[in-house]
Amino acid sequence: QVQLVESGGGLVQPGESLRLSCAASGSFASISTMSWYRQDPGKERFRVASLSDRSGELYTDSVKGRFTISSDTAKNTFYLQMNSLKPEDTARYYCYAEIRHIGDRSLWHYWGQGTQVTVSS
């Protein structure tokens, strides 16, 4: 019914920037909450940033001041702008959204497939 499609990952050098995109396709009423998670091999996936009408923008401490989450409601797309990238930012990044469907007041959860970000000199 709804799919999240990610793009924008790649290999960059320390200090460079990258922007990840997550586009939601399908029929739905609205996106309530949008988030970015990341995961290194052998580690648990954790939330990097989130955006919602109620809570605004939230970031994990390690990316505050460097990463920015934003959205374009007309395109049903949200982004993660990553500046001043560090090697420790290397991970697979996943987008996640809580979506409300037409005629249904409950929230449905969706995950993107993930996109690899590698920061190396």
Tags for this model:
single chain, about 120 residues, mainly beta, seven-stranded mixed beta sheet, four-stranded antiparallel beta sheet, 11 strands, elongated
Characterize the structure shown.
With 121 residues, the protein is mainly beta. The chain is 0% helix and 59% strand. The chain contains no helices and 11 strands. Strands 2, 4, 5, 6, 9, 10 and 11 form a 7-stranded mixed β-sheet that branches. The protein has a 4-stranded antiparallel β-sheet with strand order 1-3-8-7, with no helix packed on it. The termini are far apart. 28% of the residues are buried. The model has no long low-confidence stretch (mean pLDDT 96).
Q: Could you say which structural class the secondary elements and strand pairing correspond to?
A: mainly beta
Could you report the average pLDDT, rounded to the nearest whole number?
96
Percentage beta strand: over 45%
Quaternary assembly: single chain
Q: How many strand segments?
A: 11
- Describe the largest sheet: 7 strands, mixed
Order of helices and strands: EEEEEEEEEEE
Shape: elongated
- Please report the number of helical segments: 0
**First CA to last CA: what distance?**
41 Å
What's the gyration radius in Å?
Answer: 14 Å
Q: Percentage of helical residues?
A: under 10%
Low-confidence stretches: none
